[in-house]
Specification:
The chain is α+β, with helices and mostly antiparallel strands. The protein contains 12 helices and 36 strands. Helix 9 runs parallel beside helix 10. The radius of gyration is 25 Å and the shape is globular. Keywords: Glycosidase, Hydrolase.
Length: 601
């Protein structure tokens, strides 16, 4: 990057038109999240964005990805935002950064750290003093780094978003202004803007006087343009998120949007004199346990591991029919003399094959062996156990009278497999759920394996805790004296995996299994687990993600950089039912499609 220099913002606007260095400009952007793409693939995916005909890249910055432990902020490796920005610049692209502190993005907890949202009394996204103080400490680390990457200092950053779709959440205007001030005080001098849904309610709640107001939408751009222009005469119409696809929840269909329909709406935005950001241009993957969840008012709706989002550039980098339809549309709106790079070939794939599975440790003995026990009179939440993601195995020995006894779990978040004396007896997935077990006038070993299926990333339940937050009752009597095993699967390294895999074997239907994959030259592939029920897969020592037979996705994208030449070890933690083999496929299987367009009716 070039050194500091004094300059006005590179991207400005006047009379309803964007100006770049004083010349009329149309922002043709696409979202690509560095945290959803392996760093070794950043350059390749950025080349594909340039070949789509875009001139700008848009990314969020997830706080919880960079500060997993309070006070330990990292910007290395997968978190090297500056390296990502340099690669953006090398492609001749501008960069828009959306630092939050809340990002939504279908990302775990909307990007907010669980150690923060778990503090009793914390009031998120408000002028609550402790929240603002925590944001200030985070911004002290983050914002000067973004400031150093600004166009005025020789970098690619031309715009920074103030908060994120705040008008869908609240109306604490003082808070949004405090976020704006925090950006400016720490060195942001490029264009600042807000982005909210295209309704009066959302625009009222999220915009800041004196800063560009943008819209996020999936349809009817002419209505959005009219609304914004009626309120902000002289500002350019900017669709800061055009949803040309959509994300998926477990147990639903795979949401798609036709190439023709997406291109038609982009054409409407551009015909209205607007600028656009494709959300997503390349979706990537919720590797590990970073997928978030929604709540529909009745039940949790956890997001799948894939974040393909039916984007024009597929999860593994392949160029889809939507890519070519949008490329053709965008080419007509680029400035004169700007040539679009030729589309690159699709990335290579491993040849399909099957892998023999070796069953190792049984489920419960393995999980007990993998963690030190924590004891308390009543169940502790994930937050009380200092656990952001993963599993907790809760164990107690209640005295049950003779006959069938009903036990009730209250405030369960999210899903529990119930075992009595080692045998499975129930699966619970509601906040208040009951099950019956045979009592014999003696104590039984009761175990509940509770899975955090993703923290809520949007809506009034943002920041909700995980685990058993109420208690377990036999009729009206609480069960006391609990032992808990905290299982942060996404933090496990070779030592943890080896300890779990080598625990007591058995005829259990679930537990740990391994497979060996030998490759001469690493390449991308898609991993299927036929016959398996629900669980997690590691590739060598990296947690690839979560799988679940209910779909819609039935393959996990395995990027080439996670493999090495020679032998690789795949480790499976199966929670319900082992299959007999793993399969490498030469195409993704994301489930039966369903046409989907998000609207604000």
């Amino acid at each position: 990057m070039a050194g500091p220099r004094t300059a006005r913002p590179l991207l400005t606007f006047s009379d309803g038109v964007f100006l770049r260095a004083g010349r009329p400009h149309r922002v043709l952007a696409g979202s690509l999240h560095y945290f959803r793409v392996h760093p070794d693939q950043w350059a390749d995916r950025l080349r594909r964005l340039a070949a789509l005909g875009l001139n700008t890249v848009d990314t969020y910055v997830p706080w919880n990805f960079h500060e997993r432990v309070p006070g330990e902020v990292r910007f290395d490796g997968w978190r090297d935002l500056a390296r990502f920005a340099r690669l953006v610049q090398e492609q001749g692209l501008d960069l828009v950064v959306r630092p939050g502190p809340y990002i939504c993005a279908e990302w775990d907890n909307g990007g907010l750290p669980a150690w923060l949202t778990g503090i009793p009394g914390m009031r998120l996204r408000t002028c609550h003093g402790p929240f603002l103080q925590a944001v200030g400490r985070w911004f002290d680390e983050l914002i000067p780094r973004i400031a150093a990457l600004q166009a005025g200092r020789g970098g690619p950053v031309v715009a920074v978003q103030i908060e994120n779709e705040y008008g869908s959440h609240g109306d604490d205007h003082a808070y949004v202004r405090r976020v704006r001030d925090a950006l400016v005080e720490r060195g942001i001098t490029e264009l600042l803007y807000t982005a909210d849904g295209p309704t009066p309610l959302m625009q009222d709640g999220g915009t800041v006087p004196g800063h560009l107001a943008a819209a996020t939408l999936g349809s009817r751009p002419a209505d959005a343009a009219a609304l914004l222009r009626s309120r902000r005469p002289g500002e350019p119409f900017f669709c800061a998120e055009f949803w040309n696809g959509w994300f998926d929840h477990w147990g639903e269909k795979h949401h798609v949007r036709s190439a023709a329909g997406a291109a038609e709406t982009v054409g409407e935005i551009l015909d209205a004199g607007g600028s656009v950001n494709l959300y997503m241009a390349h979706g990537g993957t919720n590797f590990g346990l970073w997928a978030g969840a929604n709540h529909d008012g009745e039940a949790l709706r956890p997001t799948v591991t894939s974040y393909d989002s039916d984007a024009p550039i597929a999860e593994h980098g392949a160029l889809t029919p939507k890519f070519h339809a949008l490329r053709e549309k965008l080419a007509a709106y680029r400035g004169p003399g700007t040539e679009i790079p030729a589309p690159p070939a699709d990335p290579p794939l491993l040849a399909p094959r099957t892998l023999e599975v070796t069953r190792n440790a049984a489920l419960l003995p393995a999980l007990r062996a993998a963690a030190q026990p924590v004891r308390a009179p009543l169940p502790l939440s994930f937050e009380e156990l200092g656990l952001a993601r993963g599993l907790v195995l809760y164990a107690a020995e209640p005295l049950l009278p003779p006959g069938r006894q009903e036990l009730t779990v209250t405030q369960l978040h999210d899903r529990a497999q119930v075992f009595v004396d080692g045998a499975p007896v129930a699966v619970l997935d509601r906040e208040t759920a009951s099950f019956t077990v045979p009592g014999r006038g003696a104590r039984v070993r009761l175990e509940l394996l509770v899975e955090n299926q993703g923290r809520i990333n949007y809506g009034p339940l943002l920041g909700q805790g995980k685990g058993i937050l109420g208690g377990v009752r036999v009729e009206r009597r609480l069960v006391h004296h609990w032992t808990m095993y905290r299982l942060p699967l996404d933090e496990w390294g070779p030592r943890h995996l080896a300890r779990a895999v080598s625990a007591a074997p058995g005829d259990s239907r679930a537990g740990f299994a391994t497979a060996r994959l030998t490759v001469d030259e690493p390449a991308d592939t898609f991993l299927a687990l036929p016959g398996f029920g629900k669980g997690f897969v590691w590739v060598n020592d990296t947690l690839l993600g979560r799988y679940w037979e209910i779909g819609p996705q039935t393959t996990l994208y395995l990027p080439a950089p996670l493999l090495r030449g020679g032998e690789n070890t795949l480790t499976v933690l199966e929670l319900e039912r082992f299959g007999d083999r793993l399969a490498l496929c030469d195409r993704p299987r994301l489930g039966p499609p369903e046409e989907y367009v998000e609207t604000f009716d």
